[in-house]
Amino acid sequence: MRLTIVAATGGIGRQLVEQALAAGHEVTAVARYPQGVPTQARLVAVDLARPDQAALASAVTGADAVLSALGARTAADRGVATRGTEAIALAMRATGARRLLVVSAAPIGTVASPARPRPPHYDPGDGFFMRAVLNPLVKVALREHYADLARMEDIVRASGLDWTIIRPPRLLDTPLTGVYRTAYERNLRRGLAISRADVADLMLRALRQPETIRKTVGVAY
Ligand SMILES: NC(=O)c1ccc[n+]([C@@H]2O[C@H](COP(=O)([O-])OP(=O)(O)OC[C@H]3O[C@@H](n4cnc5c(N)ncnc54)[C@H](OP(=O)(O)O)[C@@H]3O)[C@@H](O)[C@H]2O)c1
After folding, report:
1. Which of 5, 39, 147, 168 is the most buried (most CB within 10 A)?
2. What percent of the chain has pLDDT over 70?
3. Cβ(69) to ligand 1 under 6 A?
4. Pocket of ligand 1 contains residue 171 by CB under 6 Å
5. Ligand 1 centroid to 212 CA: how many Å?
6. Is 156 left (phi over 0), alpha (psi -120 to 50) or beta?
7. 13 CB contacts (<8 Å, ≥6 apart)?
8. Rounded mean pLDDT, 137-163
9. What torsion do the CA atoms of 210, 215, 190, 172 make, to the nearest 10 degrees?
10. Within a 10 A sphere around the Cβ of 112, how many other Cβ atoms?
11. pLDDT over threshold 90, residue 213
12. pLDDT (0 to 100) of residue 36
């Protein structure tokens, strides 16, 4: 397949590029700082805080799918998931690319956003510890980051594209296992973590699973 991988130099992004190339896909990598992107990938340099629509259009033209693990690394990147994903969706609609997979985060189902001003208090997959202890703490600590991801989800759902939103819990840099649980529209009970490599594996698998289109997918060990 022809795949465009956005945020190709990030933790999940690197795994996506590596695994996609190993599987024989043709890869276009979108990154703001191109150093370190494997030379087998076509590279398009774009700062998604100030997206160049023409460059993005060239990156997604002819893509069978666009996979994005874009997110703010530092406070200076604040809002980049919303801004960048909006620009990606625009470029996809302009060029006819349809399949979009993005990485969000497990708590986002309970984070308010303009399109979901009153989200449920609890994710149906979360047990007592998540609901009562971990989520409230994490949501305070990462309030702005989660608001960005929640707005990104709004944009993806309203995009008219064939989208899938992946909501992982805590990300690890442990090796690929290919063995993890998934659930639609909910988190996984006692699912506290997943490796970046396995999130990438799930995203690449989802390309062959049309049932994941217009779904939010929880994933965890
Ligand atoms: N950490 C966790 O435990 C956890 C849990 C659940 C969900 N998540 C979310 O999952 C997503 C992916 O995670 P990750 O670990 O792969 O993230 P990451 O390593 O921090 O990667 C973020 C990517 O976004 C790119 N980016 C940021 N600002 C950009 C800009 N202005 N223009 C272009 N690219 C930009 C970064 O580019 P550079 O490489 O150039 O910096 C990097 O490639 C993030 O949204 C993260 O918040 C994280």
Report:
1. 5
2. 100
3. yes
4. yes
5. 22
6. alpha
7. 5, 6, 7, 29, 31, 69
8. 95
9. 80
10. 12
11. yes
12. 82
Tell me which residue has its CA closest to atom 27 in ligand 1: 72
Position 2 scores a pLDDT of 98
The full set of domain ranges for the chain reads 2-220
What is the Å distance from ligand 1's center to 186 Cα? 22
Note the pTM of the prediction, 2 decimals: 0.97
Query: Residue with structure tokens 């992946």?
Result: 166
> Greater confidence, 39 or 172?
172
> What class has domain 2-220?
alpha beta
Rounded Cα distance, 179 and 163, in Å: 23
The pLDDT tens digits of the residues spanning 46-89 come to: 999 999 999 999 999 999 999 999 999 999 999 999 999 999 99
| Site to substitute for ligand 1 among 18, 70, 201, most atoms within 8 A of C-beta | 70
Does the C-beta of 47 come closer than 6 Å to ligand 1? Answer: yes
77 close to ligand 1 (CB < 6 Angstrom): yes
